[in-house]
Amino acid sequence: MGLIELKLIRTMLILTLLAVFTLLAACGSSDDPKETSSASPSAQASPSAAENGGRATITKEQYDKIKNGMTYKEIIEIVGGEGELVSESGKEGDDLYATAVMYQGKTGTASFVFLKDELQTKSQFGLE
User: Fold this and answer.
1) Is the C-alpha dihedral spanning 89, 91, 96, 98 positive or negative?
2) CATH number at residue 53
């Protein structure tokens, strides 16, 4: 495959993940009482994590600090814990390995799309 084809595939993958993310954010998340969370840094790092299934919540201020090119680890440090993995494409370690992570806020959601653990796209809806 040529360089142009790889760039086209990468762009299509990112756009597809962003579309999935947007749909998931618009639908909200379900608070399934059967869902259990393990004792993870996210459960300890965020004061409202217990209300969010053990995951960290995000504010608009935190969201604004996050920039394209950051790693997921850097985002975890800003937010104070892990988000919910909502999409994964490819095999970890491959050039086209992509993930999408969503954080709930008190009033909205934030979505992040990573390609090889580098933030490519971010979006938010309703964060305060």
Assistant:
1) positive
2) 3.30.1450.10
Longest dimension (CA), the chain: 48
What's the rounded Cα separation, in Å, for the pair 30 and 84? 12
In a domain, 117, yes or no: yes
Residue 61 Cα distances to 8, 66, 105, 127, angstroms: 33, 9, 11, 9
**Tally of structural domains, the chain:** 1
Rounded Cα distance, 39 and 42, in Å = 8
- Cα–Cα distance, 124 to 22 (Å, whole number): 9
Phi/psi of residue 108, nearest 5 degrees = -170, -160
- Threshold 0.70, pTM exceeds: no
Instruction: Evaluate whether residue 14 is within a structural domain.
Output: yes
Q: What are the pLDDT digits (tens) for 58-99?
A: 999 999 999 999 999 999 999 999 999 999 998 998 888 999
Closest CA to 86 of 67, 64, 113, 119: 113
